[in-house]
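step: validate -> pass
step: tokenize input -> pass
step: predict -> running
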Amino acid sequence: MSNLDLPRVGAALEARIAAVRDRPVILYLLWSHERKEWWRPSGRGYTPAISEAGRYNRFAAMEACAIAADAGLLEKGVTMVAAPEHFAWEQAV
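step: predict -> pass
step: emit ->
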């Protein structure tokens, strides 16, 4: 028998879910240090315009940064930046 209090664990889990349920998904832009431009959607080219830049979820953005770092391209690497619309949402709340 376990000493685990399932109703208490369930209530804690429900509280955690409720705390994150209404948060927006943070999307990221990817900045190319080599090109000095933003990645376009789906990694198809580059653009100087933020409005034309692709939006990437956290996993995809971190993966792109990790691949650049693993390839030894830190000076030509990629930086993930939270998309500007995320900050607009935070200020509206």
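step: describe -> DSSP finds three helices and four strands in the chain.
step: cleanup -> pass
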